[in-house]
Amino acid sequence: MKFIADSMLGRLARWLRLLGCDTIYYPHIEDRRLIRIASEEDRVLITRDTRLVKMRGLKHFLLLHENDPFEQLKKVIITFNLNPFELHKGGFETRPYSRCSLCNTPLKSIPKEQAEPHVPEYVYQTSEMFKQCPTCGKFYWKGTHPEKLRKKLMEIL
Fold it and tell me: Is residue 101 in some structural domain?
């Protein structure tokens, strides 16, 4: 399942990316272009804009009424039967920490040595697996984030 989030939903887009959902987000984009991209790339448009969902050409969308990003995330997970815990139960399985939270690019595993000059010394010494975004260069490693994400999801679901 692929998403495109409107300009009001940047935090939601980031959370969906952390879950591994292919979610594009442009902070400044015209409504017509947003709809065109959604249609051309077969993406579900997630929006809070009631006027936007009435425009011609929009086929697949989710209109959110929630203000809180975690309530928005909960609504998306429930509506599309996403499975953020990697246990397949008939819904769409997600792969947390598989996409760059900044630019949405799938992450690539890299050798530990390649990460050394780019991560804190303690992280390098205590982590064995590293990933890097091939587009923006951001480095990722398994720290406390996966457990915090799991706890937050348990809290909101």
Answer: no
Alpha carbon distance 37, 26 (integer Å):
11
What tokens appear for 1 in the block? 């399942």
Domain holding 17, by residue range, is: 2-93
Q: What does DSSP say about strands 61-63 and 44-47: parallel, antiparallel, or unpaired? A: parallel
Nearest C-alpha neighbor of 4 from the set 13, 74, 65: 13
Distances in whole angstroms, Cα of residue 13 to Cα of each of 9, 38, 57, 74, 93: 6, 14, 22, 13, 17
Residues 77 and 139 in one domain: no
pLDDT at 85: 64
pLDDT tens per residue across span 52-80 = 999 887 889 999 999 999 999 999 999 99
Q: Count the residues in the chain.
A: 157
Nearest to 130 by CA among 144, 119, 121: 119
Tokens of 125: 């010494």
d(CA 144, CA 37): 35
